[in-house]
Amino acid sequence: QIYCSKGGFDLRFARGGSFGYATYFAEDAAYSHDRFCYHPDPSRPEIQRMLLAQVLTGDGVEVPKDSLSAELTKPPFKTGTRRERYDSVTGMTGHDGQPDIHRVHMVYANDRAYPQYVIDYVLREQN
Predict the structure, then answer these.
(1) Does residue 34 surpass a pLDDT of 90?
(2) Distance between CA 87 and CA 107 in Å, rounded?
(3) CA-CA distances (angstroms) from residue 23 to 3, 15, 45, 85, 118?
(4) Which of 31, 55, 91, 127 could form a disulfide with 113 if both were Cys (CB 3.0 to 4.6 A apart)?
(5) Half-sphere exposure of 29 (CA within 13 A, CB side)
(6) Apex CA 93: angle with CA 87 and CA 99, to 5°?
(7) C-alpha count within 13 angstroms, C-beta hemisphere, residue 59
(8) How remote is the C-alpha of 93 from its chain's centroid?
(9) Cα separation, 118 vs 120, whole angstroms
(10) Quick one: CA dihedral 92, 72, 3, 1, positive or negative?
(11) Euclidean distance between the first and the last CA atom of the chain, given in angstroms as a whole number
(12) What is the pLDDT of residue 100?
């Protein structure tokens, strides 16, 4: 269970990625489908499941994907301060050697997002 209704998505299930140890949300459903969809019924592998989430990005910051961003466990400090952090991080990513064309948002606290819908779907064949 990755979601707890009292605390949002559970970061204990997060894993490190290009922007550190966070909960990641893609703007493009195709990116999530290619990488992270779930098959809820093993007897019907054509059915796939995805969550549509509400994400509170607040005062976010765009961060380049590099070795420093991969070490994040919290958003960086706001420019000119060492006391106040941004609320979230935004960046561009790709997969399987593809260019970074997908915008993703990362939050580093459990209560910054919640699943609004559970979507089960089947892809139709293209003619």
Answers:
(1) no
(2) 7
(3) 11, 8, 26, 17, 17
(4) 55
(5) 11
(6) 155
(7) 7
(8) 11
(9) 7
(10) positive
(11) 37
(12) 81
Distance separating alpha carbons of residues 8 and 115, to the nearest angstrom? 8
Question: Which residues, 6 or more positions from 44, have their beta carbon under 8 angstroms from its beta carbon?
Answer: none
Q: What's the mean pLDDT in 69-93?
A: 95
Would strands 48-55 and 113-121 be described as parallel, antiparallel, or unpaired? antiparallel
Residue found by looking up tokens 């549509």 in the block? 52
- Cβ partners under 8 Å of residue 46, min gap 6: 122, 123
Q: Which residue has the tokens 């819908």?
A: 117
What pTM, to 2 d.p., does this model score? Answer: 0.84
Q: Tokens in use for 77?
A: 């400090």
